[in-house]
Design a protein that fits this description.
It catalyses: IMP + diphosphate = hypoxanthine + 5-phospho-alpha-D-ribose 1-diphosphate; GMP + diphosphate = guanine + 5-phospho-alpha-D-ribose 1-diphosphate. The protein is an alpha/beta fold and 181 residues long. The chain has 4 helices and 9 strands. Strand 5, helix 4 and strand 6 form a beta-alpha-beta unit. The two termini are 17 Å apart. 35% of the residues are buried. Bound molecules: 1-O-pyrophosphono-5-O-phosphono-alpha-D-ribofuranose (PRP) and guanine. 1-O-pyrophosphono-5-O-phosphono-alpha-D-ribofuranose binds next to strand 5 and helix 4.
Length: 181
Amino acid sequence: MTPLQAQQLLDNAECVASADTVQAVINRLASEIAGKLAADLPLVLAVMGGAVVFAGQLLPRLNFPLEFDYLHVTRYRGKTQGGAVEWRVLPGQNVAGRSVLVLDDILDEGETLAAIRDKLHDMGAARVWSAVLTNKDNGLTKPIQADFVGLEVPNRYVFGCGMDAYGLWRNLPAIYALKDK
Ligand SMILES: O=P(O)(O)OC[C@H]1O[C@H](OP(=O)(O)OP(=O)(O)O)[C@H](O)[C@@H]1O
Ligand SMILES: Nc1nc2[nH]cnc2c(=O)[nH]1
């Protein structure tokens, strides 16, 4: 894709959450998470790559001791339809016996987060919590619900705030939905 095509993608998209809304949502999530996990010394795991913006903005708002690490799993690989869950970096052995909080940018069909939860339980996590910046309102019965949900987004392909559109635009401070084809 050329820079002009990438710009046209954004120009034709619809903003579904402004940058101010996203900041307010992350503030609320930080306080909800502190209410549940402040005394647990949790291991916080960001799901690369989509969670990078969410994690980077949430972590400084969590005012209690925690350990941070990441895992990398992908299922969309720059496309707008998901496929098989592919592990690129497994969680570390430090999950055993821990209260683990998984951070991700979006819960869509739920396959990714369910696979992460199962993996963490297999590795001996004492309790697995999850926080997602967005939950897609797609009418599906999902295999997992997140414990902490930022925003509901419409049943369209969304991007910005860590979420990509054809591999691009993760850097946007607001959330957009691709124009319907
Ligand atoms: O609920 P699901 O339908 O399973 O989709 C959610 C997952 O899809 C995205 O990851 P993606 O595979 O696009 O990789 P990325 O993090 O590199 O964008 C997103 O970051 C979630 O991890
Ligand atoms: N960027 C992005 N990634 C996703 N993964 C699952 N659904 C989506 C979506 O709508 N946008």
